[in-house]
Amino acid sequence: MILNAITWDVDPEIFSIGSLEIRWYGLLFATAFLSGYIVFKKFLATDRLTSEMVDQLLIYTAIGGVLGARLGQGSEFSLLVSYSALAIGLIDLRASYLIQLIVIITFVLSTYWVVYRYRTPISSSEKNRMD
């Protein structure tokens, strides 16, 4: 099979200084936040945003992005762990269903909360709907 011919042995660490490790996904997160910050700085003149608003947006986006990525990763891994535990007999079917149900409810409630609370084109609240 062709996939067996691919050797995936990339080190997740770019370099380390003492106990500080710089990893590829951290570099990509930082690049995304920095490029978003630069783009929003360019929108200052056209959308009448203040520099303080863009700075606050960067902070909220960085915190929300990192926390959201970690929580999403945890949810996905909990599904994987429950499936694996069910496959090898560590948990029964009811426990696996319970874990899956909780993860799905969490996804739905968090999505609804974001869409209800913030101004988006798909907001469920009329006051937060924007074109």
Explain what the structure shows.
- This protein is mainly alpha-helical and 131 residues long.
- The chain has one domain (22-128).
- Helices cover 65% and strands 7% of the residues.
- The protein has four helices and two strands.
- Strands 1-2 form a two-stranded antiparallel ribbon.
- β1 (13-17) and β2 (20-23) form a beta hairpin.
- α1 (24-42) runs antiparallel to α3 (51-87) and α3 (51-87) runs antiparallel to α4 (93-117).
- The longest helix has 37 residues, at 51-87.
- It is flat, with a radius of gyration of 21 Å.
- It starts with 12 loop residues before the first strand and ends in a 14-residue tail after the last helix.
Q: Bin the helical content.
A: 55-70%
> Proportion of β residues?
5-15%
What best-fitting shape do the alpha-carbon axes yield? flat
**Quaternary organisation:** single chain
> Gap between N and C termini, in Å?
49 Å
